[in-house]
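Board notes (copied after class):
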Amino acid sequence: MSNQVSQVRSAFLQAASVLGFAFNSPPVERLEDASAHIVGHVLHFGNSKGCVPVLLGVPPSTIAAIQAAGYYYSQLSSSYSQFDAGLFRDTLNDWGFFGPVQLRPAWYTGHTSGAQA
């Protein structure tokens, strides 16, 4: 695992704690072969199986493995190496919430960064 993946993973762990969403790290079991490039697994966002964030520039085989397993994926820049509540909230709103209503964070609006309030 690269240092950048480790930094983004740490920022996601902090974001999950502060913002109240479920994040698993290490990543999901069925993606062990691609785990060096995977930040983790964000439950209930992206699609019904969750989102598997990766860093920009991962091998196409990693993306293919994530898609074949039925997960949503998002390629992230190095700006996710440090926790920024606004950035993480905007990103999760962009991905969409697909979990049970009782698990939806109070801050979740469903508005994408390009949407107008």
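Comment from the instructor: Residues 3-103 form one domain. The longest strand covers residues 51-55.
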